[in-house]
Amino acid sequence: MTTPEHNDFLTLTGPATPMGDLMRRYWIPALLSAEIPEPDCPPVRVKLLGERLIAFRDSAGRVGVMDEFCAHRGVSLWFGRNEDNGLRCPYHGWKYDSSGQCIEVPSEPVESGFCNKIKLAAYPCVEMGDAIWIYMGPPALKPPLPNFEWATVPATHRFVSKRTQECNWLQALEGGIDSVHVSFLHRHDLRSDPLHVSQGAEFTRGTEVRFEVIETKGGMVIGVRRPATPGQLYWRITQWIMPFHTMIPPYGDNALNGHAFVPVDDENCMVWCFTHHPARPLSAHELEVMRNGGGIHVNLIPGSFRPVINKDNDYMIDRMAQKHHKSYSGVKGIAMQDAAIQESSGPIQDRSKENLVSTDNGVIMARQRLRKAALAAAQGKEPDGIDPSTHSVRSAAIVLPEAQSFYEGAGDALNAKAGVAHASV
Q1: What's the CA angle centered on 84, arms 78 and 87, to 5 degrees?
Q2: How far apart are CA 244 and CA 269, in angstroms?
Q3: What are the distances in angstroms from CA 217 to CA 185, 363, 384, 393?
Q4: 30-52, pLDDT tens digit by residue?
Q5: C-alpha to C-alpha distance for 388 and 103, rounded to whole angstroms
Q6: pTM, whole model, 2 decimals?
Q7: Which of 334, 308, 198 is nearest to 254 (CA)?
Q8: Cα–Cα distance between 130 and 150 in angstroms, integer?
Q9: With contact defined as beta carbons under 8 Å apart, do 348 and 267 qualify?
Q10: What span, in angstroms and rounded, lies between the C-alpha atoms of 70 and 85?
Q11: Which among 383, 361, 358 has a CA at the least distance from the CA of 371?
Q12: Strand partners, 55
């Protein structure tokens, strides 16, 4: 059983918390490049790990991510003027460059050097894969850049979106590493969503499942097997890369999918959704489906990252569709089915009331691994999943003889290879 104290240890990610300190040791996707598309465009609010930040692109195209509030009297720099290589507070004109350094205080003589003493907390950032990543940890421990395949393929091979989810990051992650629920929650959508239809999707509808977990240097490989043909098993193999990245097993020649469940604060997370194909550009049809909320992507309320389907409208649940076996849950769309179920547990799930079974071994092991990593990080050790070589892996969906180990049978198919298509059924 997970005690309330253990639950707090795993879920709380603000400053000076064990899990928050662990998260700050990794590069974190903070915002889409498209949110600050050009030099001197309006700044954007960003909240990560309970910290309120501001992001802007200066006149030279440099990206800055720093404390949202002016050091003078705490005005939000979201109101700031992005001009002449800096963000200027509109209240009294204090100006900051992309490193957070104050470069102008109009009321003070230049020769006083006053502005040199003022610097906002700011974080290193890098732009890759249509996203802006930041590092929020100790400068001396800054890790190498991430190396996830979706972020390194040509831009034409990927589609990236994000959405808010109104619950703690851990219950969203745990949904991402639980492949068993697909047979129930998503069973009808596997026949209707154009990015999932395949022979493997038909196998996935089977509810006779067995679960195996292999720990790796970067996280875990989770294999779920179902009957396929006589003497053979269909394996769906999920990758979890610490602390919050998951890679979803593919269907046929459809593109690969993955998530990052990034804590906004203790009761909300940002769900990043990555779709990419290693060997070809995404088709016009695939892009149209995703832009219209298909696959793992959703339709958003204009001007926000909140889904149109949300808890305030009861996720637009259709009880008639549920009753007549057109939708197992009555909620439309694979992504929002996951979100509805995960949010239904409350902002932070009370895990002390759980009754776990054998198919929850992946969830149990992930919690143990996160706790160990946070304790190790507190002792100055390097957490798992920082090494970029642990990022260049893939999920897979394969059929193997009944007696064969899924991990050995999958073999090299679990490693990313540039230009080589993934293993899928």
Answers
A1: 20
A2: 11
A3: 31, 17, 6, 11
A4: 999 999 999 999 999 999 999 99
A5: 36
A6: 0.94
A7: 198
A8: 10
A9: yes
A10: 17
A11: 383
A12: 44, 65
In contact, 123 and 98? CB cutoff 8 Å: no
Furthest-apart CA pair in the chain: how many Å? Answer: 84
> CA 29, CA 260: separation in Å to the nearest integer?
8
Cα gap 49→21, rounded to integer Å: 10
CA dihedral sign, ordered 135, 415, 221, 195: positive
Rounded-to-integer distance, Cα 13 and Cα 250, Å: 31
* Whole-Å CA distances, 238 to 201, 248, 279, 305, 328: 15, 5, 20, 26, 23
What digits encode the pLDDT tens for the residues 183-192? 788 877 777 7
User: What pairing do the DSSP bridges indicate for beta strands 232-241 and 122-123?
Assistant: unpaired
SS3 annotation, the chain: CCCHHHHHHHHCCCCCCHHHHHHCCCEEEEEEHHHCCCCCCCCEEEEECCEEEEEEECCCCCEEEEECECCCCCCEHHHCEECCCCEECCCCCCEECCCCEEEECCCCCHHHCHHHHCECCEECEEEECCEEEEECCCHHHCCCCCCCHHHHCCHHHEEEEEEEECCCHHHHHHHHCCCCCHHHHCCCHHHHCCCCCCHHHHHHCCCCCEEEEEECCCEEEEEEEEECCCCEEEEEEEEEECCCEEEECCCCCCCEEEEEEEEEECCEEEEEEEEECCCCCCCHHHHHHHHCCCCCCCCECCCCCCECCCHHHHHHCCHHHHHCCCCCCCCCCHHHHHHHHHHCCCCCCCHHHCCCCHHHHHHHHHHHHHHHHHHHHHCCCCCCCCCHHHCCECCEEEEEECCCCHHHHHHHHHECCCCCCCCCC
Please report where in the chains the tokens 């098993």 appear, as a residue.
233
- Nearest Cα to Cα of residue 294 among 303, 282, 304: 282
CA angle 408, 414, 419 (to 5 degrees): 135
pLDDT digits (tens, 9 = 90+) for 67-113: 999 999 999 999 999 999 999 999 999 999 999 999 999 999 999 99
Preceding omega of 230 cis (within 30 degrees of 0): no
Rounded-to-integer distance, Cα 264 and Cα 270, Å:
6
Nearest alpha-carbon partner for 183 in 198, 166, 202: 202
pLDDT of 121: 97
